[in-house]
Amino acid sequence: MKVEKHSIRKLAALAGSMFGILVAAGCGDDTGLEKRYPVYGAVTYQGKPVAHGTINFMPDGGTGRAAGAPIEDGKYSLTTATQGDGALPGKYNVTVTAHEISDNAELKAIAKGGQFHHDKDFAKATANAKNLVPAKYASLTTSDLKAEVKPESNKFDFDLKD
Q1: Domain 39-160 is found in CATH 2.60.40
Q2: How large a percentage of the chain has pLDDT more than 90?
Q3: Domain boundaries, the chain
């Protein structure tokens, strides 16, 4: 059987096109979640960057997938499932917590990420730590911070007030 060069080129072009379509469509990741979009920004209090803390995006209405990030030098980049993957499109209520960190062993638990798995050192530290931002921003019922993540790159800056 004789295969013409023209047919091989057509097959190669078709295979290349199919590969491009699959890549463009995104084969997804192994999280099983829909596509997430970058969400980043700045958090300031009284016009100054919040040195360290945590920001959380909770889906409006209480259903859906939350996203969060540490705040470092006033900047954050959200994670939903894998580091820095962003958030799913939708409306969110936003909370911010930031506590003073000192040489005290209990307060060091905050710096080590104890807030993410709620260990006993973190519980002690939270009770004793001075808030660096008003406590109202730590609660969904009093924060009043909102964001709508769109299917594109999203930047949200939050300037916290007393």
Answers
A1: yes
A2: 57
A3: 39-160
> Measured at the alpha carbon of residue 82, what is the angle toward residues 22 and 66, in degrees to the nearest 5?
110
Mean pLDDT, rounded, for 99-110:
65
Interatomic CA distance for residues 111 and 126, integer angstroms: 11
3-state secondary structure of 117: helix
d(CA 145, CA 91): 11
Residue 161 has which token pair?
A: 């007030």
Q: Say if CB 151 and CB 37 are below 8 A apart.
A: yes
CA distance 97 to 18: 47
Euclidean distance between CA atoms 4 and 152, whole angstroms: 45
Q: Please state the separation of Cα 62 from the chain's center in Å.
A: 17
pLDDT of residue 31: 78
